[in-house]
Amino acid sequence: MSKKEFKAESKRLLEMMINSIYSQKEVFLRELLSNSSDAIDKIYYKALTDDSLRFNKESYYIKVTPDKTNRTLTITDTGIGMTQEELESSLGTIARSGSLAFKNENETKDGHTIIGQFGVGFYAAFMVADVVTVISKALGSDEAYKWESTGADGYTIEPCEKETVGTQIILKIDVLKDLLLFYSSTEKKLVTLNEYVSRMPEDQKYIYYASGESYDRIEKLPQAELVADKGYEILYFTEDIDEFAIKMLMTYEEKEFKSVSSSDLGIEAEEEQLNESEEKENKELFDYMKKALAGKVGDVRASKRLKTHPVCLSADGEVTIEMEKILSAMPDNQHVKAEKVLEINVNHDVFASLKDAFENDKEKLDLYTNLLYNQALLIEGLSISDPVEFTNDICKIMI
Q: What tens digit of pLDDT does each residue of 102-154 get?
């Protein structure tokens, strides 16, 4: 099996992408998912003119599978697949785009569209992967083929085994850890992970990060108050792929990464801990609020992180709220949800109003609960389900 060279224009682009290291790091995942969506759309278009094909929407999917142990990320689709010739033409040269050509030939107005060019986004995968493997079996073919490359030096294509029609793209992750740059809350500039760790106090257990749309919005997050108050540096993640990349890294210099929105920040100090009597005293109130928000949050708790803000959302489990937002915006929305927790600042004046309403006016408590929940959603940049109800609730407390 001989290695083939990329076409000249593809090789130049690939070298540029590899050398740009994370300047546009969200591109690779977004474009690979777009490619998979295109492959499924192609079967749909083919079914319009081929009576032997039936397009059952529920039978088609895109699946993203991370493997922390082997450091791989696999994108699987049940789309139309590629032949050996299509692997050669689509992945061997950037100038040709199977999806773009197909789009030009099959424009329709029924909501099914081909997103764009396969090559450009596909090559962006080399910004985060040492090895890229594509295993594909085309619709109507008995043969499957494996395309593999380690970068600009070329690629190989060989027959392989695959039972079902579709494509698997396997990325072997080495994101060049020491070249990754993130904005620092304390340094007010981009820093490396090595620089961050070198400044960590002895009592700091984790590398803390916060995710959001901009540095300014992250700076104002209520969840960051406790970590910042302890004097710990926080890395700001503003790109879609930042948090996913960190999940793949798992650790840096034996230090785990921890979101400031995590339910357990790993910070232990007497002033942040509620004593047992206070927990017991407020349990019935929090249980009532939890019931009122059933299906929206997994729990309502007294916050150990809030200082000046009355309320915030945190997340139990591996899926953070920011990850939920990113996944819900992807072409094949799997409706992955973070396990949200509504945290209440018991030292804020608002909490006194909650306790009074719990004792004397349950209807008012329901109003306050919904207001605080919707406020927490807005702080996170999440949409509220009923804006009209929210504005009416605000008006109720004004009159």
A: 444 544 444 444 333 344 557 777 777 889 999 999 999 999 999 998 876 78
Residues 204 and 165 both lie in one domain: no
Report yes or no on 42 lying in a domain: yes
CA distances to 72, 118, 137, 149, 354 from 158, in Å? 21, 21, 12, 12, 67
Q: Give me the mean pLDDT over the 184-202 stretch.
A: 94
User: Which residues are CB-contacts of 40 (< 8 A; sequence separation ≥ 6)?
Assistant: 60, 62, 77, 78, 79, 80
Instruction: Say if strands 339-344 and 311-316 run parallel, antiparallel, or are unpaired.
Output: antiparallel
Q: Are residues 21 and 65 in the same domain?
A: yes
List the CATH number of the domain containing 223: 3.40.50.11260
Instruction: Say if residues 376 and 384 touch (Cβ distance below 8 Å).
Output: no
pLDDT bracket for residue 20 (50, 70, 90): very low
Overall number of domains in the chain: 3
Instruction: Please name the residues in contact with 105: beta carbons below 8 A apart, sequence gap of 6 or more.
Output: none
Reading the block at residue 80, the tokens are 């139309």
- Same domain? 110 vs 166: yes
- Nearest-CA neighbor of 135 among 166, 109, 90? 166
Quote the CA–CA distance of 398 and 20 in Å, as a whole number: 54
Stretch 49-59: mean pLDDT: 82
| This model's pTM is above 0.70 | no
Residue with tokens 């996170």: 380
Q: Across all residues in the chain, what is the average pLDDT?
A: 82
- Straight-line distance from the first to the last Cα atom of the chain, in angstroms, rounded to the nearest whole number: 79
pLDDT at 182: 92
Higher pLDDT, 368 or 98: 368
DSSP string of 243-278, one letter each residue: HHHHHHH-EETTEEEEETTBS------GGGSPPHHH
Structure tokens that stand for 359 in this block: 């004792």
Residue 90: domain span: 8-175
The reply to whether 168 and 183 lie within a common domain is: no
Which residue in the block uniquely carries the two structure tokens 């948090």? 243
